[in-house]
Amino acid sequence: MGYRRGLNFSELNYSFDIFNSFLVEKFLNIISSKATNKIVDEKNGAKLRITEIQTKFRDKFSKSLEEYKHGIFSSLLLFKNFTYFLESDYYISGDNLSEEDLRQFYIRKEILRSIAGHTCPKIYHLSLNTLSFLLILCDELQEWNRPKFDDLIKREPSKEPEVEIREFVLVPNQKIHIKLTYDFDILPDKTKYFVDSRFRFIHCLLRSAKDDNNRKEKKVEFIWEIKFSNTQYTLCFDSNKDSFDQLDVYFQEIDGDNEFTVKKPYNIYKDNRHEK
Question: Any idea what DSSP says for residue 225?
């Protein structure tokens, strides 16, 4: 592909052969590391500015690369093709990074990690106030006009919902409330695609973690409603509750006057759907 308005898209292609293995390894190390000050002399308070690999991130990102997730491939593509990212200073051994080098590393790492992590559900999130979670949210709320296989077979138009962000507050507490509204009835055998997969994904991201107390301090609350003509499904995550009670998923039927019936629990991990 040639130039278009000054951009050479042919440079942004996928080519990962043996000659690029060093850059791939360095890329994985960068997005899996944290910038830190290591005290080397407690008496004088001397610090060593270094980067440290967080092995759990290294394992999860390696698995994501193995599964060809588009998030990590997009991040790797940016790293390999933009000089800005190739100039990332990375601590190897014995070198004390300058304060500015460490700051620049952190900026580059956060950009690359957020892009790589938005398709890696194995990474849990303690906060909604991160670039990575924002990218995930944007991805989930956008249907991208992709036709579904069933729609192509039946020659039906794609079913795109109306998206409403009802609440988006990140300070002092964190609360996000979104609603998707479809203008058709949902059948029980269709909930797996429209409801279950989305709710399971969010539950995986907000699952219980060793630093759950951090979420309690921030008072993290996430509400997602998916409404159809005949039913509404709701996922509520509230970090103020005990660990086993933080997630609440239920559905409500809608009568002819657009009134909701009583809440009924809904199991997103159960194959048998509720009866209509």
Answer: E
